[in-house]
Design a protein that fits this description.
Number of helices: 10
Distance between the termini: 43 Å
CATH topology of the largest domain: Rossmann fold
CATH class of the largest domain: Alpha Beta
Helix content: 40-55%
CATH superfamily of the largest domain: NAD(P)-binding Rossmann-like Domain
Strand order of the largest sheet: 1-11-8-7-5-6
Radius of gyration: 19 Å
Length: 290
Amino acid sequence: MILLDGKALSKQIKQEIKTEVDALRKSGGNIPHLAAVIVGDNPASESYVKNKVKSSDEVGFESTVIKKDANISEEELLEIVDSLNKNSDVDGFIVQLPLPRHIDPDKIVLAIDPQKDVDGFHPFNFGSMAQGLDAYLPATPYGILLMLERYNIETEGKEVVVLGRSNIVGSPISILLSRKGNPGNATVTITHSRTKDLDSVLKKADIIIAAIGRDRFVKSHQVKEGVVIIDVGINRISDPSRKKGSRLVGDCDFDDLQNTASHMTPVPGGVGPMTVTALLLNTLKAAKNK
């Protein structure tokens, strides 16, 4: 099995971005500026934002973090979004999800200027992507595309099964892989909790993209020999042998599948680093567009 090492690939692409940013700096060009808004004290969100800021610094971007308490009003958060929309020094920004229950995430996403929506969540960018127009692609699907491209994994004419239909991963990656282009030109099936006889669907797949949030759900008996597995899931399970008493696993059973799959992403160290890299590429694009 070939390990699809997102950590190593991310490092390579970040070096390419840094080289381009260094050239921009020497020529007096616009240095990309990424801002992140985080609300509350969610440890996972704080870790994600910290990683994004660290990566921004590594490639030479400017970065800003705006941290607010969980009791912030929806109106105040909308005002922060509006101020970032109007700030000409900021090329792109994200509002880290999830948000507290009293804040409507859809309302926040809709308020972001599509030209600064480097997470690729705004309906304008989603619709443009669906029509094959220029857009900021959702970061995780974009990262998956980069991984398939850089590892020379053929998608044309292949059967792709996507586990999960979220607007963040499942739906957009199904659109991207079925459209014309490379990676693309695949026959894509989206599966979900209402799918009947899932095993028979999975057995046909040349490529499986799992994003359902169920730890080690996909097993070797459900897939065919030589399948390519892109595991988007991040699940924490108990593990007394670890110092923290737990460890992270994906939606696919890595240990069980490694003798069946031809290529597979690890968790952690697979899709996660590529998501951050895709965010950086979107921010670089936003800076160039300005």
